[in-house]
Write a structure and sequence with these properties.
The chain is mostly helical and 66 residues long. It contains four helices and no strands. The termini are far apart. The relative contact order is 0.18.
Length: 66
C-alpha cells in the first residue's frame, strides 16, 4: 500500500532505513519497507504537484551547510 501523505512517506522511508527510528516510532521495519517499496515510482513529490513537475517547474531542493 503506498503512502497517502508526504509526511507518511518520509516517516516510512526513515523507518525502513533506520531500525532504531522504527523502534522509536513503533513501526515494524518490514511494514515500513513494504510502504517504501510501494512508494517507489509514485507521483508523490514533496511539495510539488504533478503539473509543476511535468512542465519543468522549479526543483525543490534543500541546501545544507549554507
Amino acid at each position: 500500500m503506498p503512502s497517502t501523505t508526504p509526511k507518511q512517506k518520509r516517516t516510512m522511508a526513515a523507518a525502513a532505513h533506520n531500525p532504531a527510528f522504527a523502534k522509536k516510532v513503533g513501526i515494524p521495519v518490514d511494514v515500513a519497507k513494504d510502504f517504501n517499496r510501494a512508494d517507489t515510482g509514485t507521483s508523490m513529490r514533496m511539495g510539488q504537484s504533478d503539473a509543476e513537475y511535468a512542465k519543468g517547474g522549479p526543483i525543490l531542493r534543500r541546501t545544507y551547510g549554507r
